[in-house]
Queue: 4 jobs
Job 1
Amino acid sequence: MLEVKDLEVIVGGRKILDGVNLRIDPGETCVLLGPNGSGKSTLLQAIVGNPTYQITGTIFFKGEDITQMPTNERIKRGLGISFQHPPAVRGVKLLDVMEEMHGDGEKIEEMAERMGLGDFLERDLNLGFSGGELKRSEMVQLLTLQPDLVLLDEPDSGVDVENLELIGEVINEILKRSSKPRFRNRSGLIITHMGSIMQYVKPDKGFVMLDGKIVCSGKPEELINQIKKNGYEGCMKCIN
Amino acid sequence: MYKLSLEFSKLDKKLREKALKAVDKKALYGEDVDLDRYGEGEKDLSSITNLNELDENERKALTDVGIQEENRSGSYLQFDNSVLLELQIQEGIEVMSIFKALEKYDWLKDYWWNAVAVDQDKFTAYSQLHEPMGYFIRAKPYIKSEFPVQSCLYIKSGGTVQNVHNIIVAEEGSELDVITGCAVGEKTEDALHIGISEFFVKRDATLSFTMIHSWGEGVAVRPRSAAIIEENGTFFSNYVNMRRTKSIQMYPTAYCVGKNSMARYSTVMVAREGSKIDIGSRSVLKAEGSKTEMISRAIGLGGEAYIRGDIEGEAEDVKGHLECRGLMLKDEGFIFSIPELKASLQNLDLSHEAAIGKIAEDEIFYLMTRGLSAEEATAAIVRGFLNVETKGLPKALDEEMRKTIEASLSSML
């Protein structure tokens, strides 16, 4: 589904990613762990093509080199992302972007209702939304988009238990986690800081990122337990 | 000459004397205009019975500013200084040239130069001294306009001063919607529009006035307008100008003189290269509980834009808010936002917010992750910026505003 080779990313003159290699197979859901500032969000935004980034290396999606492709073309090909801090877009309604992604008005309303955002369709996108509302708004947009590879940047940060359960349910639905593994065709890459989303979404694989490099991969539960026990300092000791 | 009653003639004479003293009085804002450069254009064009009698270019120019055949409660059409069409359609709503109205209603002497001062500046003085043309629109008491009344002021001949004086009255309990489209002939290179508009909103009445300006790059525009709003009356003033215009300077004023009266302005403008635009909105809250809201949006596209706003609170319990946003789409030209608040007692609430910025890259990227191209994302943000909330505006007029904005979007990006 996704293959990232020797990816280096410079943002505002600073090297943030330093030779990232990553592979996600069809049907596979992975978590990306790492301390603040290690480059996790940068990796996700590089995959969807943040135009302010200077990039070397290659990104393949479904076998196609998308490294130089404009963001919207990547989205057309089946990529989707939820942001940790989505910007407010004044004057553009949540409904406008949902219609852009999916023409069916009735379904849009149904999905918004389900996410508790029925009254938000006519509101300016993300403007004055609370933390939980922002996360639900990102989720309802992904539900509309139905991407083949879902990139989720901390869907669990700042979210209360009830919202977390709903968000987990939606992620599982988009990723078709209830299907048998061999029938799953959607893939996911989830950034989580404390792993709380893993109560609801059971990933297949985990990666640890330190200082702009993926330094370790393994079983998600084991990784998170190690990190909880020894912190990321433990990871550093382990790799050196 | 108008055929006026003796009493009206006396008033007219006094006004002329006052005007004469102001013929050289420069306007407070905007670049000066040499009035001697202009002639009076066509004064005797023959009238028409419907818009199809106009040539194709003229019809298109009119359509672009919201003038149409269908779904109107009345029509007034003026080319240069000639009246081409004055049409009353709905019972209880009068539409006629000011010339006819002044002859018909002697009581108009109480309205003529009542809201705007004749000696405000050289433009008001010129208007009074040169026998203006213009329209009179009035909704009789408790009449509601089913459709908007439309008026169109069109400059056909180069070198013309179009001299307009309008009076609009919404009588007690009435609801009147007016759309005015201003346009100019394709080849009209150099012209001046002076437009005096006096609005009277009586007790419990609502008047919404939407003006779409589509002047050309050789036209100087100097409207002088004011509204007097009585108890529980509501005045909506909506303004759109998306085209390159040599210069526009106006500072319409709403006097809220009745208890709980309200004035609301929405202003949308684009300052293209070569345009000098200076537009303000002023409300004077003179009566207890009166309110005002002003929303302005300006796009800088290489031209000069002054956006002024002024709220003066002079009575108990009044409330006013002024919001002005600018979006710079070029590194040339400027947007100068000047909000002013004046309070002369304790118990009131006046506020303003102003912001000028550019289109944020992170917003474009975000919308691109929702599938929009960079161009579509930029257009969506600019469209969103210009789509001011037009609370209380009838749907038809709201659509005209949006249509005008939409039509010019591609030329801005």
Job 2
Amino acid sequence: MMITDNTQTHCPVYWPRAIIHIDMNAFFASIEQRDFPELRGQPVAITNGEVGTCVITCSYEARAYGVHTGMRLPEARKRCRGLIQRPARPEIYATVSTGIMRALEVVSPDIEVFSVDEAFLDVTRCQRLYGSPVYMAKLAKQAVFDASGLLSSAGVSGDKTTAKFAAKLNKPDGLTVIPPWHAREILHDQPVTALCGIAEGIERFLAGHGAHCCGDVGKLPVSVLARRFGNLGRRIWLMCQGEDPDQIHQDVPAPKSIGHGKVVPPDTCDRDILLTYLQHMSEKVAARLRRHDMEAGHFLVGLRTRDGWLGDRRRLAVPGNDGNHLYRLCRDILDQHWHGEGIHQVQVTALDPQPCQQQLDLFSQHNEHRGQLNAVMDDINRRYGELTVSPARLLGRSSMPNVIAPAWKPNGHRQTI
Amino acid sequence: MKFRIQRETLLKPLQAVIGVVERRQTLPVLSNILVQAQDNQITLTSTDLEVELLATFEVDVAENGMITIPARKLVDICRTLPDESMLDIQLKGEKIALKSGKSRFTLSTLDASEFPQIDEIHSIQRFQIQERELKHLIEKTHFSMAQQDVRYYLNGLMFELNADSLRTVATDGHRLAMSQHKMKIDSDDSPQVIVPRKGIQELNRLLEDSDKMVSVMISNNHIRVEMDNLRFTSKLIDGKFPDYKRVIPSDCDKLINLDLETIKKALVRTSILSNEKYRGVRLIFDTNLLRIQAHNPEQEEAEDELPIDYDGPTIEIGFNVNYILDALGAIDTEQVIFALTDANSSCLIYSDDNQDCQYVIMPMRL
């Protein structure tokens, strides 16, 4: 029923829908082991730069000792004495990820890049060309390997949720097939949290209605879930029966917000240091808005203290994408909301990114000079690296490396580090 | 305080003043209205510290007095009592007792001295205008006021007092609406005052389509309008309104005459498939033909065509369709004129009848 690897790939049945989920195994750690042979077979933990103290990901060898993502380094070392710490190289990971996604596009153009190391392939329409979905999963794994030299796990089923569930069953380097007509039966006794997208909140609600396994959910009236969660509730009800209706999403949806944050040295009380961090984030947000021909008029500036966030939302009179204007907002907010508390993190977010200069204004004249200056700066920085040219204050900026977000995508506004 | 009153006599003035009583209050007394009973006259006052509304009416007062009463509860009680029932209202200790037939209510009160009063107004300008004309001036412009703009002076309606006319102007930076009423005003330097958005909305609600005269008083920081039995007072926005005359184009060389209903309906139809957020539509003015196009992120498309009388160069220009529809909605003649310069300059819309109302809309880049 559940087929793992080495089964015959010939399938005489045409699947009404066929989805492959590709999941990279310990992606960042595997890249390090690929590039540095001395790390192969060793427990490796990736941290944010040399100074990071949190495990971003770790190799399978380290996982065997109980080390996992999110664990603090001292705790990880306690569990695994020989743990090797490596600084993350986000630019490399982004390049490898892009290469993998491009290779997968060759298998099926209907691809959804789900995160930096995961993708869904809808191969329904490729069955006449390549044959069975199982065979295409093998093709996909091979394509990933050819593009990156890395192993991956694949799950094949008739919908996204079941395919993702299947991919998790055999790692690393697995290939698990759950034919759509068996999905309901296989999910029946699985706890609801085994499905992607069902976390504590929904689990608690379902448990309150006596549903702990996917099979129990199918017995609830769909209206119970719909009343509480709307369309998401209806989707969950179908997901639990192996019939997730969600399609492959190829377009990166327009951004709801664009923001950057950074951890500052713990308990920073120095106004100058905070201003430097805030200007750094302002420049990053502004440059990113410009890169995507966007501007914004509503911003959030946050400062995290031991007890929570300080800060405020502010509007610009006319939407813009100039780092200086943003920095001025930051300075105002710092002056009005910060009274010397120790700060641990800063955040600058554009809350309403929109296409540039769409609606012209009656009273404000567009500042051509600033626009040209920014364009030249962007050109130089694109060629010679981020912030090669920047406001003078940023000479003293943090040397903490950039971090790659799990939601990173090879196209659109998420293609940033 | 004690008086007897018919439900309808109380309900109408109550509903007139309830508008400024906010549902959520930081100052408890602001959710109350002030009731003053004096010499057979009742005065109801409500305020949100920015706008004050005052209504008076005649009734037999058995006992003079003043107190503040929870406003919404009082309105709801009056509303739900049977038609034409009589109410007995009496202050008993710190409570208000309200009796009508078999229904009894006891409401809490706050002392009248806690109720915020607007300082005495020293009017520096005073004039009279027909109620209907004042309402028109507001209705033809108020929709262009900004909402919570950082340029706080845009979040209101500007009144300009010229020697030969009273003008209202509203703008949110993307579009501007101007309306004027020809009248003699005793002013020599055309003073401008900005009335905040909330005040304008209340005033518009209170004004009726009547040919009675209302008096308008303006002081350094207040405007007051006195109608029959009603008095509206609002603080003014302390700021300088932008130079609106500079942005009303005067040199548009392409004038296109359109049938109001036809263009309105075509725009409404086309806009169904415009981007829900940005509402962009493209207008293409070609030789004797206007094409209207819209599309949305789902790649759906709409196109409409209208015959027009035009033989200039083709102009392709984008607008937020809501801005055009707002302007067209305020024009009440059959024909309307679109005055254009080019795709990057503003468009002026006015009635073919007169130019007392003018609407300027900045284009969108599509």
Job 3
Amino acid sequence: MATMAEKIFSWKLGRDVEPGEFVVAPVDISYFQDGTGPLGIRRFNEFSDKVADPRKVHFFIDHASPSPRKELSNDHRFIREFARRMGTYLHEYGEGISHQIMVEEFAKPGDIIVGADSHTCTLGALAAFATGVGSTDAAIAMSEGGLWFRIPESYRIEVSGELEKGVYSKDLILYIIGKLGADGATYKSAEFHGEAISKLSQEARFTISNMAIEMGAKVGLIPTDDETFRYLKSIRGDQEFLNVVPDEDASYEKTFYFDAKNIPPGVAAPHNVDNWKPIDEVAGTPINQVYIGTCTNGRIEDFRIAAQILKGRKKHRDVTLIIAPASKRVYIQAVTEGLIKIFIEAGGVVLPPGCGPCVGIHAGVPADNEVVLSTQNRNFKGRMGNPSAEIYLASPATAAASALKGVITDPREYL
Amino acid sequence: MEGMTILRGRVWKFGDNISTDHIIPGRYYHLRSNLPELAKHVMEDADPEFPKKVKPGDFIVAGKNFGMGSSREHAAIVIKLANVSAVIAKSFARIFFRNAINNGLPVIIADTDKIDDGDELEVDLEKGVIRNLTKNIEIKIQPLPKVMLDILKEGGIVEYIKKYSRLPVTE
Ligand code: SF4
């Protein structure tokens, strides 16, 4: 009878829960990044002096990493001092983006996790009930070991068939957001099902859950299967993990059906993530910068796809090509496989693991009226640090192909 | 929320999908530990005049999905610091909504089609009604869940916890 979200809360509370109910539930992990951490710490200091369990709390210095200015350096020091004093985890410069480190090393199926960052929903691809909250809510979870939640209603998103060559999970999720709209799943638990989803690698699934927030969802859950456990065991070794799937007769507020074979490569055009356009409609648009990375598409599989297209070729003269691995693990793997060499030889600039230019704090801020094509998850006005710039969102394959031509390009030309 | 049950002020009208990047752009990231300075840029990318001209008591009125995007609580805080009395929208993004309540900023769900820029409003939170004094009409407010009203009444979640030493849900 229970959807994935209802199941996880029922397990944690030891009783059945209903959508719409307000509960206080234990939180397995709470985390902060450098933009939300300082406020979280200040709020915490207003009402508490004790972290419930320091081994369930993480601080990540990933957004402005390394710091581009003194104000942020001071914030970083403030975070470091607090994390050391309380004995929490602290993830430093060069270690990578919070959500990526969470999926590699910490998040487990069936966990309840809150992160003071909206893309915490990435972890839903490992069937963790993981949701973004503000600094104060994360501070409460850090202090109390729990938080109040409203049990969300669930939407079932069923994707049949298989993606065609040159079409990736990024194209799929951009398409779905285009159909449902930026507020199409506001407050809901979005559960992704169907043949097309189960055929995706775990890495590709993270891209889907990562963008659940872009249609307003509270979580983006994908049931566990052999691929989930293969991924977890490949990194964490032999451990037992919970199997989290919905009951067969679970009830959903709405079900949406998509057929993967109808989905072409696509982009989100400026300035909204739901402004989906098929590649045909935008191909030929001149661009000034390409960014491959972020918590959406900065994983090793993304880099392999981009490198396959960039190998032995040179980026277009008028385009800046920036690449940032999502984590240290991705970076080392990319070095080992020779992908970084391919990027550098193609004329790319490789930044340290972290958010890179995604949110416009440093490295890679576009000039006035420039056009950027990025593998990130948001193209809001001003997102990359310049409100007059235009941002298109696309897959790593489309990004790599477009970097070569200097205009938005269908990646299938190179595959 | 004492003395806050009747709010009165002038309207700043915005459209749909106002994101947290509109409310407080990422380029001011370095000011996040300096809230008064950060607040000087409130809503700047939605209307560059707003931070200069907003008056205490004014309302932000918008279409659907107000506050979409990031989890930055600073978005709710800078609106509060600008002394905006409430944000009224057809719908809100989830994280912003919760952040606003946690900071004691009233967020009101209502049909905003009949509210225009510059209109004078009176909002009665207790009765759940918006009076558009300029147009001489009344608009109903969608009631808030009890837990959120309880937090708002204390002026925010931190004040609530300090007062009751517990989270605002009892089973
Ligand atoms: S990569 Fe971009 S979207 Fe992801 S956590 Fe960093 S700033 Fe946020």
Job 4
Amino acid sequence: MSQHNITDSSLLLSLLLVVIALLISQKEKLGMSKDIIWSVCRAIIQLVIVGYVLKSIFDLNNDWLTVLMVLFICVNAALNARKRSLNISNGFVISFVAITTGTTLTLTILLLSGAIEFIPMQVIPISGMIAGNAMVAVGLCFSNLNQRFSDNRQKIQEMLSLGAPVKMASARFIRDSVRAAMIPTVDGAKTVGLVSLPGMMSGLIFAGIDPVKAIKYQIMVTFMLIGTASLSTIIAAYLAYRRLYTARAQLKF
Amino acid sequence: MTTDYPLLDVQGVTFSLQGRMLLAPVSLQLNAGERLLLTGPSGSGKSTLLKILATLLEPSGGQILFKNQNIASLKTEHYRQQVSYCFQTPQLFGDTVYDNLALPWHIRQQKPSRDKLVESLADVHLAADMLDKKIEQLSGGEKQRVGLLRNLQFLPQVLLLDEVTSALDEENKVIINALIDSLVREKHLAVIGISHDGQEIREAQQVLKLEAPEQGTTNEPA
């Protein structure tokens, strides 16, 4: 396997790309210069910290520490997904349960099938990919639920006034929200390899792995992303919709 | 069957939102076979009162008894099947008229019979072939009639009508009013409706005029 090391000087030179973005922002008066500088600084600091933290965890190779790191990833993903919960109370708990369940189940299947080994070097990056995807899907699911419940207030109330249970009155909107939340993952799977060479596969090819072997990992990633997105959004949607009603089956908002 | 308590007993019900009173205290009583008309200026809380009676909104004060039981202690779904609210402009579900008329059956986990659905269409002067008609092909009056029939598939004890005839032409108004009148007379349906129509108000058995809540009034039957 050929080693590819990016040198500090080449990294610095690639900073030119950010300068181009800043120049465009200035020239076109986009007002994004501060945002660009802030996001680049955050990315550098976060990645440097993560790099050293991961190196230490990989060196220690401790099972509990690995589990703790997976939980840390899930907590952060849930904190981010919660931002889209708006009218849904307990957004963090719902996101955490949905993301952690999806991540745990997918990891378990990958481990039991022997696709990956329980070592931090494999479990942690895979967890990040799974939880990150679940985070986006759960966040989208929350946004969609809020939007659909607000747009279809009268329809829901009409169902309720006919004596329908809240689950029945919400079913269509839950289904639509889950579907909309899964579209990016499903569409991503449809175009994988055609539009972009995804991260896992690109990384392996970069590291000198035979592309034919690299696709096996990418296929596994595709499976796990679809599985996690569907499981996490279903859990999130069914835990969240009830929060849009009072205990007396009235719409809260 | 006569009882010594009214079918619906509304006692000093109020509604406020974010500190602003939207419905001044209302008290009213309604028995089976009675028809009450709510009138009053815009903003007096007529629709709000109907939605509270339908348990779609929670009152800020007062209480409502249905058959002498506080509705807060009743199972909401069962209560709503007995006290049914019909919207001013009903939104129809699914693709066809059938989907809408079958819905109350599905809610009760029963299979609708096409004959019964066709029969109910005849009650509001709609032909049998209307059952499979797409909802986007219906006129405003037809939609309103289908919306009302949806509430009447299983006859409730109280029907709450939120200006259901306000946007309709004379022909549709007559059809809907005739159906309601016959249900009140023959099946002892109790009805609370909202109307601004002078003729409907003159002909009504009972009228309750709600006052704008700003005036600090209470709304009680004369």
